[in-house]
């Protein structure tokens, strides 16, 4: 079972940037597609971005052109670069993995990290 841990959240001014990291355990990371989700207070958890095991990407329309997902299989890590942040991006951001290897994107999440808080001030 994959274990995930997010880092890199914090407080940033509107218009600024942050990069989130998700470190995964195990030897099978390279076989998993990976995704980022977020949940703001009072809202449902929503898809943000995903990257497939072979490099294909997916973005929610709300972040397309501003966020970039990437991965480094040698480090068992997936990243989310967030640019042009607005208060609407304030949320807890979660890393997630699907149940099976070799799936496409967007992912159907089965395994979750604990989340990292991103707060964008106006």
What does this 3D model show about the protein?
Strand 7 and strand 8 form a beta hairpin. This protein has 122 residues and is mainly β. The strands form two sheets. Strands 2, 4, 5, 6, 9, 10 and 11 form a seven-stranded mixed β-sheet that branches. Strands 1-3-8-7 form a four-stranded antiparallel β-sheet, with no helix packed on it. The chain contains no helices and eleven strands. The chain has strands at 4-7, 10-13, 18-24, 34-39, 46-51, 57-59, 67-72, 77-82, 91-97, 111-112, 116-121. The protein is 0% helix and 47% strand. The model has no long low-confidence stretch (mean pLDDT 96).
Structural class: mainly beta
β-strand percent reads over 45%
* Head-to-tail CA distance between termini: 40 Å
Radius of gyration: 13 Å
Q: Low-confidence segments, ≥5 residues, pLDDT <50?
A: none
Shape: globular
Q: Describe the largest sheet.
A: 7 strands, mixed
Number of strands: 11
Number of helices: 0
Helix content range? under 10%
Order of helices and strands: EEEEEEEEEEE
Mean residue pLDDT: 96
Give a summary of the structure in a few sentences:
The chain is an all-beta fold. It has no helices and eleven strands.
Secondary structure layout plus pairing:
Elements: E1 4-7, E2 10-13, E3 18-24, E4 34-39, E5 46-51, E6 57-59, E7 67-72, E8 77-82, E9 91-97, E10 111-112, E11 116-121
Parallel strand pairs: 2-11
Antiparallel strand pairs: 1-3, 3-8, 4-5, 4-9, 5-6, 7-8, 9-10, 9-11
Provide the descriptors you would attach to this structure in a database record.
122 residues; mainly beta; seven-stranded mixed beta sheet; four-stranded antiparallel beta sheet
């Amino acid at each position: 079972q994959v274990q995930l841990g997010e880092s890199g959240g914090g407080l940033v001014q509107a218009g600024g940037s942050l990069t989130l990291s998700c470190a995964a355990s195990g030897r099978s990371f390279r076989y998993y597609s990976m995704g980022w989700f977020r949940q703001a207070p009072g809202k449902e958890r929503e898809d943000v971005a995903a990257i497939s095991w072979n490099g294909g990407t997916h973005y929610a329309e709300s972040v397309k052109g501003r966020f970039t997902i990437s991965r480094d299989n040698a480090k068992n890590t997936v990243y989310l670069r967030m640019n042009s942040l607005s208060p609407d991006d304030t949320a807890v951001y979660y890393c997630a993995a699907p149940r099976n290897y070799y799936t496409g994107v967007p992912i159907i999440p089965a395994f979750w990290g604990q989340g990292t808080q991103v707060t964008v001030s106006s």
